[in-house]
């Protein structure tokens, strides 16, 4: 009987893989959870697969960083049942050991925010204990100045599930209000708020001081603005009204001896008319003089 032996070469996936990570940064704002399963090595490369409570999850994304590193990313909106859910990532393939996997639970303590408003002495004030995470809250516990709040229809009231507390006839100037919540799986979260009474007179004084400050700032701005305009207008007016024309500069006449007769103006006693009398000889005066011939 002849047989054929087939040898498969490769490398096993390191036992430290796969590795699971959870990103809870946007659980409170978007209620979205991102789970990442990563591995490196293994030949042939194993397949990374997410499971929720043992059931295969199909909406995961597969990606690779390089030839050795690869990921399976699962991003989903949390629901109430995720508080007790268990997510498992398995490496599947001949290079992986049976049940080579990692697990993670998205259950995180609930984030609590107390919502309230301004109040005045003698009025009632309502506090709402808001849980940001989508867990099932089974119990709300309120304390005021570290004292447990008990139902008293003349002093306190709560809604049906205990998430809203109302205090009647506030008569103090300071309160410390705390809300503690417990989930179905035993997770605990809390928040507290300090409230202080502000009298109407103090509020009016603060309002008046703020109004006065704003008015002074606006007045300073407009005074500076108007002064700047007046200075600019004054300079323009002075330049327009007081600007005298500049005297024209006298250019000296060119002094050349060629063709110019220097003369003085005199008044003739006989005729009464002015006459020009040459004062310097010229080439023209020499031409007009009669020549005397010597015999």
What this model shows, in words?
The chain is α+β, with helices and mostly antiparallel strands and 295 residues long. Helix content is 18%, strand content 35%. It contains three helices and 18 strands. It has helices at residues 27-30, 200-241, 283-288; strands spanning 19-23, 32-40, 47-52, 55-56, 61-64, 69-77, 87-92, 101-104, 112-115, 125-131, 137-144, 147-148, 156-158, 164-167, 174-183, 188-196, 263-267, 274-278. The longest helix has 42 residues, at 200-241. Mean pLDDT is 77; it is low at 249-269 and 271-295.
| CATH hierarchy, class of the domain at 112-198 | Mainly Beta
Which regions contain 5 or more consecutive residues with pLDDT less than 50? 249-269, 271-295
User: What is the topology, as strand order, of the major beta sheet?
Assistant: 1-2-6-5
**Main β-sheet, in a few words?**
4 strands, antiparallel
Give the CA-CA distance, first to last residue.
174 Å
CATH architecture of the domain at 112-198: Sandwich
Provide mean pLDDT, rounded: 77
Put the structure in a nutshell:
With 295 residues, the chain is α+β, with helices and mostly antiparallel strands. Helices cover 18% and strands 35% of the residues. A hairpin with an 8-residue loop joins strand 7 and strand 8 (101-104).
How would the blueprint of this fold be written?
Blueprint: E1 19-23, H1 27-30, E2 32-40, E3 47-52, E4 55-56, E5 61-64, E6 69-77, E7 87-92, E8 101-104, E9 112-115, E10 125-131, E11 137-144, E12 147-148, E13 156-158, E14 164-167, E15 174-183, E16 188-196, H2 200-241, E17 263-267, E18 274-278, H3 283-288
